[in-house]
Amino acid sequence: MYFEIVSEITDIQSIAVGSSIHEIKRLRKQFGPGRWRKLKGSGLVRLPGGRIRRVELHWYEAHGIGKRKIKIKRYLDQE
Q1: Phi/psi at 28 (nearest 5 deg)?
Q2: 55: Cβ contacts below 8 Å, ≥ 6 apart
Q3: Rg (CA), the chain
Q4: Each residue of 12-50: pLDDT tens digit?
């Protein structure tokens, strides 16, 4: 990751579950079978230059496997 999550992720919502996820075959091949969900939430991250920003994060998660492929979708604060 090119950023570090420095706060708790809040406002978590499910975007897709199971076969509704476009990348489900790749997730199962790379990380194993599970009940995969695509989720989104907001939190604070530290960027490489040291700046801290509030962002919307998207990631995939399965029970027993954990969070995978966390990415910043958009910045929520004013810059």
Answers
A1: -65, -40
A2: 42, 43, 44, 45, 72, 73, 74, 75, 76
A3: 13
A4: 999 999 999 999 999 999 999 999 999 999 999 999 999
Q: What is the pLDDT of residue 1?
A: 62
Structural domain harbouring 9: 4-75
> pTM here?
0.90
Q: What token pair was written down for 72?
A: 């910043």
Which residue stretches of the chain are H helix? 24-31
Give yes or no for a contact between 75 and 49, defined as CB atoms under 8 angstroms apart. Answer: no
Total domain count for the chain? 1
Q: Measure the CA–CA gap between 12 and 43, rounded to whole angstroms.
A: 10
